[in-house]
Write a structure and sequence with these properties.
Largest sheet: 3 strands, mixed
Number of strands: 6
Shape: globular
Structural class: alpha/beta
Order of helices and strands: HEHEEHEHEEH
Mean pLDDT: 91
Number of domains: 1
CATH topology: CBS-domain
Low-confidence stretches: none
Number of helices: 5
CATH architecture: Roll
Length: 131
């Protein structure tokens, strides 16, 4: 069995916004880039939180003003992946924590990418043998 590493399947494109960005702008970024999550980073590039499609559904359902800063509604309990973890380990984290996007950190704690459930599934399917 081949062990696939996070660094081999993650997206190296980091889409992020500062914490004062209005929800409306974040939703526009997500729509424009066809992505399911945006990282919220401080001015040193450290992750403060993540805003996902699920968060957007919650915001709409609760009638929160879309001009509210993203820092008020983002998920701050970040589950992260290490660049050297296996995709299987990350899949377990996603399942255990009911999340679909994880920021990927290097050895120094810097964000170097994002891995999504789609990336995990793609790696699994690519490694499978079809009948």
């Amino acid at each position: 069995m081949i062990i696939i590493s996070v660094k081999d399947v993650m997206s190296k494109t980091i889409v992020s916004v500062p914490p004062n960005t209005p929800i409306r702008k974040v939703a526009e970024v997500m729509y424009g880039k066809s992505i399911g999550s945006v990282l919220v980073l401080d001015d040193q590039g450290r992750p403060l939180g993540i805003f996902t499609e699920r968060d957007l559904v919650r915001v709409i359902a609760l009638g929160i003003d879309l001009d509210t800063p993203i820092e008020k509604v983002m998920s701050t309990r970040l589950i992260t992946a290490s660049i050297n973890e296996s995709v299987v380990e990350v899949a377990h984290k996603m399942i255990e924590n009911w999340v679909r996007h994880l920021p990927v950190l290097d050895e120094s704690g810097k964000v170097v990418g994002v891995i999504s459930i789609r990336d995990v599934l793609r790696a699994y399917v690519a490694g499978s043998t079809f009948p």
